[in-house]
Each structure stands twice: as structure tokens, then as C-alpha cells.
Design brief:
heterodimer; A: about 325 residues; Rossmann fold; 2 domains; about 30% helix; elongated; B: about 650 residues; MetI-like fold; 13 strands
Chain lengths: ~325, ~650
Amino acid sequence: MADTNGTAMSELTFEQVTVRFGTGSRALTAVDSVDLTVPSGQVVGLVGESGSGKSTLARAAVGLTELAGGQILLDGVPLQHRSRGPRPLQLVFQDPYSSLDPRMTIGNSIAEAVPRSADYSRAGEVARLLELVDLDPERASAYPAALSGGQRQRVALARALAGRPEVILADEITSALDVSVQGTVLNLVRDLQRQLHLSMLFISHNLAVVRYVSDYIAVMYLGRIVEFGPAAELLGDPQHPYTRELLAAAPRRGALALDVEELDPALRAVADAEPADPHHPPPGCRFHPRCPIGPLVRPDRELCQTVDPTPDAGRHRHHTACHYAAAALQAVDLVQ
Amino acid sequence: MATRTKSGRHGWAAVIRTPLGLSAGLLLLLVLLLAVFAPVLWSHQASAIDTDHLLEGPSASHWLGTDNLGRDIFYRVLVATRQSIALALLATAIAVVTGLLLGTAPAVLGRRAGRLVTAVVNVAVAFPGLLLALFFAVIFGVGAKGAVLAIGFAGAPAFARLTQTLVAGVAARDFVAAARIAGAGRIRLLVRHILPNISEPLVVNATIGAGGALLAFAGLSFLGLGVQPPAYDWGRLMGESLNSIYVHPAAALAPGVAVVISGLAFNLFGEAVAKGLGVESIGVTRYRRCSEDSAQPEAPTSQYVVEDVVLSVRDLRVTFLGPDGPITPVRGVSFTIGHGEAVGVVGESGSGKSLTALAVAQLIEPPGQVSAERLDYLREPLLDTPDADRRQLLGTSFAMVFQDPTTSFNPTKRIGAQLAEGAREHQGLTRQQATTRAIDRLRAVRVPAAERRAGQYPHEFSGGMRQRAMIGMGLMGEPALIVADEPTTALDVTVQRQVLRLLESIRTEDGVALLLISHDITVIGQVCDRVLVMYAGRIVEDLPATALATGARHPYTRALLAAVPDLDTDLEQPLAVIPGRPVDPGRLPSGCAFAARCEFADDRCRTEDPELETQLDEGHRVACWHPQVVELGWPIRMGQR
């Protein structure tokens, strides 16, 4: 099963996964019945705003958060989180300044994640991993304080690879980095993915970054996946109004991302609407209070206020959770 | 972060270097030496019974007099050091070990057992320590062993509680989660990751705890619950001499003084350690505004004449005192902002862009120093205006928006009241008028249901709404300039667009100038008329936003533009990167600071620092020996004007 890099990557499936924090009236459903598949050897990009539950989903997958419902399967087998030994799923954290122990050399941090084996020495394995992420193996004895943010993030990647995982979950791994460094980390992620055929869930709020590394893109809004499809298709022909809004806000050559033209008052109101409170998610479609093609702009669409479009998502292209997914097309001119 | 990690080794040396640390350390050493050697040297003198000299006062042969068996009290006090210190340390050790076990138990045990331990510790902490000690003394019996156990266990709950808190703080950090995912067991997590990161505060508290244990032990022995004869410690000596305190005060006071000195030695040393390890090593200098020591050649100002200048900055410098001499993260920045103009400052972290904004807003706190040849706001030289006038000027005609809207409001006051506060102070409005204006301004920044929201607290606002309220606060006066430091970095993209739109409409409607600081060159390109690109504390390029797309000349600006992936980035090519890492402001190279990362750099770049000079067209300044004129291969059209 193990080739030179010990990577026999496999398919990660979330089935009706629900994560809840707190109890009673303060309960917060961070992830609500999410179905998502990361195909073997592919990268699924997960975008959404803060509080949409992207990170919670990743933390649930590695066992840092307990599930309130559903299950997570690896190649069809439910995941068991043992307290010891290497784990098939590895998470790379957002902030490389807090994800490395300041009192441990980077070599030791990586070595800790290397499973005991007779086939190789730990020191050799650490050197190999450091080289894999373009760091000088000589630096194994350095402390994280001596490294820049980008270098630390590469150490974090090496540590994640040390356990010879089957799936990598990358949680906003470039958002704490400067643009000049972001590129090196993204290039590395792409190279490693191609070289090792990693299955990967790549989480970011930045659509342009997700586009660069992903084969598929899933869009998350308030704990639910609202659209999922092959990256190029989804970006070229977005179905959900929220996806369109994200696309409109992303920087783009030749496009004016910021328009100050006076909008229709109803459109203006939804454009300025506050993101919904996750403690009290709106009934029906969760996006309806902010939707430019929803009931606040088109009064005849009361359906959105009462009926959750998620169960019917399969009927639309890209599994879009929107009653008017097809109709969204005409509305885009109004918003832009 | 770096200083915190370094503090491990350098911190202890720093502790000894302070006067308090040094004297406390020496005192403690003396006490410990006495504890070790006094019984060896003087136990004979201390136990020699001299029936000819019973209960005598101080004399040449017996400096502190004798006790009821004629034994020399001076030597007895010295010899008692070992017993007193040893028992105190033993009790502390019991407290620390028990405390550590109880404190780390929740991290090692499962959730339910952990909660039980936490609850037990919480209950134990609620009991007064002395009460616990007396209680244990009764259980363990009267005597040294009982007293040690009593004081040890009495001190354990407080230590356990401290450990629990520290463990919880470190356990929540990502590196612990990362080690868990890597497969590290609970014990390993505790020993390798958690304990090393909490050891310093624990050591400090154990030291202070030892002082407390010493006092407590003296107390118990004094009451007769501690050391039993013929053994003796300071408390016992005090108790024995108490009856004759009016006749021979020295005999009773001497052991008391010994307790006080040793207790002080422990406590002061603990405090010095806490201070030495906790305080960052930034030197403190007096805050002074200086414009005279600008020995640097005068930085050329913009040739580009703006009528109706709102802000004029020439040769602005911000200096801090670092461990190895002064660091100047902003080195001679010059620019002007005209009426209603939007100027963006872009650069990587550490480029000095935020410090420039803070210096303009007069928010650099000592020991930071701001100097400028000119720093004029609405024609008033800010550095030479008396404090009260400056506050009035900035209070009414200047607005600042910070990056993190969660920390820029007082969480305990209603949003409306916080907006009204400044207006009452600076514009002399009544409470009613100020509140009305606050609601009006909230409406102006498009906060829905402004009247109701004004009565809410900051936590009831979402991030984007709070940022709008912050901008509304700036609009309470009649601002001529809004300085926004990364106003949208903490916000989601869709919300970011709302806030940028709002800033843009305020600017066009009210003619307010905008100084927008951001690391995101696309944001700057969307909102601003003019872009200042900063690198290593200097402006390296000053260009119109419309020229950003195709006309950028400085290799750094061009590299920044190329490095940002957008929705049209070629997926087949690797992303453009800027090799190397930003310059450490404490170690600036000679010549151009960007030379080491620049593909066009030659020997001149590495020796001579280029000045910011006007290039070809008006309003475009570049500090580069090799400005690039070839059109960018990645035409990014971002500016909207």
C-alpha cells in the first residue's frame, strides 16, 4: 500500500454531519447536516465567510470536535479517533505562530508526528520531510522563533505529512501570511498535491486562492453547503446567489469589484444587510434576508422564508441549495 | 512572540541584572548557605548548656543573650535556619507536587473525571489556607511531620488552581491540537508541550509560596503545633522566648527577624523573577518630539501640488528603542493629502504602514518617538501645537478607523453613548443633542434601525456593523480626513465590500479625504486615487491608482501586484513570489532595502539608497535605480476612475 511516500490517498466523505456547541437556548449549530465528498487524490476547496462552519467541519474530521449527528467516512469506513498512534487525517492550522510549540525545535515537532517504524530512522525522515517542503534539513534544530511565517507554515505542512496521512485538511493556511509569502505556500501545496496525489480539503475565505488549488469547490453559508461543483464550472457558471456575491467581491482583472452606483432601495437594503446570527438562523433558506433575488426584493418569493431548499439541492446544477437557482441568472445584471 | 520564547534563557540573566533581583538573589543565597552550613559549624555552641548564665540579656559572650538553659540564642537562631527552611521547602514541595497533580489531572483524565477534580479544587480554594492547615494539623497530629503535611496540603489548592488555569490556556493553543492530531498521547502532550510552556509562572509562584510556607510554619511552631522539643525552629524559639519578651526582647525578636528576612528573600526573589520574565526588554526613553535632529538629507517632497491640502507630511520618522539600540521602522516618509483625496498605503507586515497612520493620528505612545520636519494637519503643525488644542483639532476634524472592530469599542457602554461622548466633549453638545446626532450618524453609515441599535452594546453588533458604527463615530464631528488602518482585514469579503462602499460614498458626498492603510493592493486599487507603496519604512513608489495596473515602475510594486492571485490567474503557472523575506527594521542593509530580493539589483543598489524622485509624468514618484518601464505582463485593471 505504501509507495515511496507512503501515500495511498483515499476518499473522505461527510454524511449528514452536524456539529453543535452549547445546549438549550444558547445552542449553536455550527455545521448543519452537511454532505460532502473529497474524492481520492483531488482537492476540494471550501469557501464561506467566518462563522459559516468551515473550520468546524475540518476540526470535526480530525476529532477535535465531537459530532452531534451524521458520520465521517474514510473509504466508506467510519473514522475512529484513537488517542494514540498516527491518524489518517491531518490538519494544517491557520496561524503558524501558534501551531508550533515555541519550546520545541522544528525537527522535534516533526519527529513527534513520525510513526515509529523499523523501515527508516526518525532523523532521516525529518530531513526528508524538510526537503519535501523546500527547507534546509540543517534547520531541524532551529526553534520556531527563528523562522518566518511562511517557513513556519511549511514546517506545519511537513508535520502534517509526517504521519503519512490519507487526507490533508488545510484550514486557511495562507490567511495569516503576507501576499509575498502566500504564493510560495500555495505553490508548495500544489506541488505536493501533484507529487503525492493527496486528497485534500482546502479551506479559505478567499475565492481566488481556492480557485488556484482546487479541483472542486464547495460554498458554505451558515453551516450548510449551498453549492458544490467542479471548480471551473462553478466559478464560470455559479448557480447560488451567494456564490455570485462572493465572486463579485473577489478581485478580478478587468472587473470593477466596487461599485457605488445607487442601487434600487430594496437591493441596497439586502446588500447592506447584516450577516445572520448563527444562534438564530433564519427559517427557510438561510440566505433569504441577504438574497438579491429573494423575498425581500421579489415579494412573490415567500417560499424562501418558509421552505429550506437544502433537501432539494440535488435537483439543481452544482447541488445548489436555492429554490430559484436557475432564475438567479437574470438577476445578476441587477446586482452588478 | 520571539521575545517571549527568548525570555527562557535570557530572562533569568535579566532577573539577576536588576537591582531588586540581585539583592533578593544574594539574600536568598545567604539564607540557603546558612541553612546548609550553620548546623555543621555551630550546633555545638547552640546546644551547650551553661547553667551559670540562665536567661541573660545580650552581652559580649552571648550577643543575643541566653535562654532558660543558658544556651546561646544567637547560635540557636543561626542553627534553626536549616530546620525552618528545610521544613518550609518540604511543605512547598508537597504543595507544588499535589497542586501540579490536581491541576494537570483534568488535562490527562477524561472529561467527566476532569470536571470532578476541577470541582474539588474549586471547593478547596474557597477554604482559608490557615483553616485548612489547622484542620490538617489536627488530623496528622501535632509535630513537625503533621505541620509539614498540613501546610503542604493547605497550599495545594491555590497552586492546583493556578496550574489548571495555565494548562487550560496552553491546551487551547493550536500546537497542542496539532500534536494531538499527530497522535501524541495525553501524558506526552502534558510533559512535552504543556508543562514547558507554563513552567515559568509556576516556578515564580512556587518561590513566593515558599516564603508563605515559611511564615505559616513559624506560626504553627509558635503555637506549639509545629516542631516539638528538643528540635527547634524559628517559630519554636519565638514561642519559648515570648514569656520573657519584656525582660529580654532580643531573644524573642531575633528569630522573628530571621523569619522576616528569609520570607522577604523568597518573596522578593519570586517577584523579581516574575518581573524579569514577564516584562519585554524594551528600553524606556522620554517621549520627545524633535524636528531638529534630522541630519538626513532633506527628502524631496511631492512636486505634485495639491490645492487645499488637508495633511502635509515631510520626513516623518518613528523610532523605538530596541534591545540593541534605536530602531526606526518609519524612515523619512513624505506625502500630502488633498481635500477629498483618497490615498492608499500598501506594504507587507513590518513595512511601517500602520505606524505611519498612527503617527499621523498622534497615537504613538512613549517610548516611541515621532519626529518630522513637517506634520501639518489643516495647516496646524501637530507636533508644535499644545496638547489641548491638538486634541480639540483632532477630536472634531479627524477620524480614525481601526482594524479590529471588536476591540475598538468599550464593551460595557452602549454604542450610541460612545458615539455621543466625543461630541459632548469636543463640540459642547448637550446629552440630548449628542444622542440625536449619534442616531443620525448611525443612519448615515447605514446601520439599519439606527434608533434601536444606538441603545445596544457592542457585542450585539456584527463585525461589519461595528466597523460602520466606528466610521459613524468618526463622522460625529466634521472630519476632513479619515485614517483607516486595515478597516476590512477582519471582515468577510462580502462585508468588506459594504464597508469600502460606505467609505467611498462618504468621501464623494462630504468631500472627506481618506488615508487607507492595507496589505491588500487590490483593495487600495479599488478605493484610492493615489497609492503609496511602502517597504522597510520608506515610500518606494507613489503613483496614481489608475497607473497601478500598467504603469508601476518599482520592482517591489510590480512583484506585489503579481503575487496576488485573482480569479483570472493562470492555473498552469506557479504563482509569482517575492523571494527572500522582509527586512528586519533593526538590521537595515546599506543601499536599497529591497536590493536583496530584487532581480534587477546591482552593486549601486546595494550601496546607495535611492531617493523618492519624480519620474516621467507628474504625480508619480519612484525610489529605484532601475525603474521598470516595460508594461506589466499582467494587466490588472482595478482603479475605477
